[in-house]
Design brief:
Elements: H1 2-27, H2 33-38, H3 43-57, H4 63-74, E1 79-80, E2 88-91, E3 97-100, H5 112-128, E4 133-138, H6 157-170, E5 174-177, H7 179-184, H8 201-214, H9 222-225, E6 230-239, H10 244-247, H11 249-252, E7 255-262, E8 268-272, E9 277-281, H12 283-286, E10 314-319, E11 327-332, H13 336-344, E12 349-353, H14 362-369, E13 373-379
Parallel strand pairs: 4-5, 4-13, 11-12, 11-13
Antiparallel strand pairs: 1-2, 2-3, 6-7, 8-9, 8-10, 10-12
Length: 397
């Protein structure tokens, strides 16, 4: 009897899996290998080839994630909870994914006041060295004054950013808020990946264009920022972002990924001593990492790091084609990965620092480097993260 029950349960699961693939394949408008197989007239061939077809339709190593996410989508669930508070995934009303902390409210995070004080003190110290300092707030995936979350859920990224900017301005620090720029464009959601929290390369390029027109130190030849001066290649269904990896492609699909290639001549030297990175040459070989997009790997790869490589503690990009340009020190979070290669074209040297991994004293680094501008670019949700405002490093906390 136990064997019969086991066989019956296995048959039921197999039927559910087959039905799920068919339903989801139809739902997303595609025809998978399994659906094609089932259209044949030979039942024996269907049974013999079903496993092979299923493995082609779904990543075999992540079959459980795929099936689980597919079932949740068919069941209409918009929240996929995770044991780690910040890793629960929510499907927004526009169909895209976002991480959510189930304990979050819509009020500013408790660390914002301390973060703002630290940022204001740092800006004041930099200005005392005779170096301009600018804090730039990048947009997050959830737009201000939007109603994208399921009823009962809240997040405080934008309210934390509002509170931080207000405190910085009250302290006399220079700030620039990119959120209105993206909101006024009318296609806010399209600037972000469906399955990842980051902005798409198109969003980073758009931000670069605006910064070069708005920040005097970053003034750049308009020919460089003109989209007509760039070739773009769209890799379709190539990227499964950090949120998508947790729930599978059947839950919210996948993302296209855009590769920018300048039509003009470039020559850059990119170094990061901590990771022994030393790359030089044209834009797409030095500040971009073509090996990251050599093949499609939804669960094992991260095409987002094609731009700038990843989150490095301290790195430098020397632009050999712009020796008279400004020297800029960029304090950054992961949103700057997609921005960094473009921004480097506006500089003679761009030094990037990620305080989550940087072990030194940032003010001492600024004093040693003597940049023409210290620029901080954080997405709105970073305003509540104390790690992003640890300017003195772990020994100075």
């Amino acid at each position: 009897m136990k064997r019969a029950n086991t066989v019956g349960a296995a048959a039921l699961l197999a039927a559910l899996a087959l039905g799920l693939v068919l339903a989801v394949s139809s739902f997303f408008g595609g025809e998978g290998h399994l659906e094609t197989l089932l259209k044949g007239d030979d039942p024996a061939a269907v049974l013999e080839g079903a496993e092979s077809a299923l493995n082609q339709d779904l990543d075999e190593d992540h079959l459980f994630i795929q099936l689980y996410g597919g079932f949740q989508r068919l069941a209409g669930r918009r929240l996929i909870e995770d044991p780690v508070e910040d890793n629960s995934v929510v499907r927004l009303s526009n169909g895209t994914l976002n991480f959510i902390n189930l304990l979050s409210s819509d009020k500013p995070g408790p660390a914002v006041a301390d973060n703002a004080q630290a940022a204001a003190d740092f800006a004041g110290a930099v200005e005392a060295l005779g170096i301009p300092c600018l804090y730039v707030a990048a947009p997050q995936k959830i737009q201000r004054d939007s109603n994208l979350l399921p009823v009962g859920l809240a997040e405080n990224g934008n309210s934390s950013c509002d509170a931080l900017l207000s405190a910085l301005e009250e302290a006399g620090a220079d700030t620039l808020d990119l959120r209105p720029l993206f909101e006024e464009n009318g296609v806010y959601a399209d600037w972000f990946f469906r399955t990842d929290h980051h902005w798409r390369p198109e969003g980073a390029f758009f931000a670069w264009q605006y910064l070069t027109r708005t920040v005097d130190v970053l003034a750049t030849d308009p020919a460089l920022t003109d989209p007509a001066s760039w070739d773009t290649q769209v890799l379709e269904d190539f990227f499964l972002g950090s949120q998508g990896k947790r729930v599978g492609s059947l839950y919210a699909g996948t993302d296209d990924f855009t590769v920018y290639t300048p039509k003009f001549e470039t020559d850059l030297h990119y170094t990061c001593p901590f990771y022994a990175i030393d790359r030089e040459g044209p834009f797409n070989q030095s500040v971009c990492f073509p090996e990251r997009i050599a093949g499609q790997d939804w669960f094992g790869g991260n095409p987002y790091t094609y731009y700038a490589g990843g989150d490095y503690p301290l790195a430098s990009i020397v632009n050999r084609k712009n020796p008279e340009g400004p020297k800029v020190l960029l304090v950054r979070d992961s949103f700057a990965c997609a921005l960094t290669p473009f921004l480097a074209l506006s500089c003679s040297e761009l030094i990037t620092v990620d305080l989550r991994y940087f072990q030194g004293d940032l003010l001492e680094t600024v004093e040693a480097q003597q940049p023409d501008l210290v620029l901080t670019l954080y997405t709105a949700s970073s305003a509540g993260n104390p790690e992003m405002f640890s300017y003195a490093g772990p020994d100075g906390e």
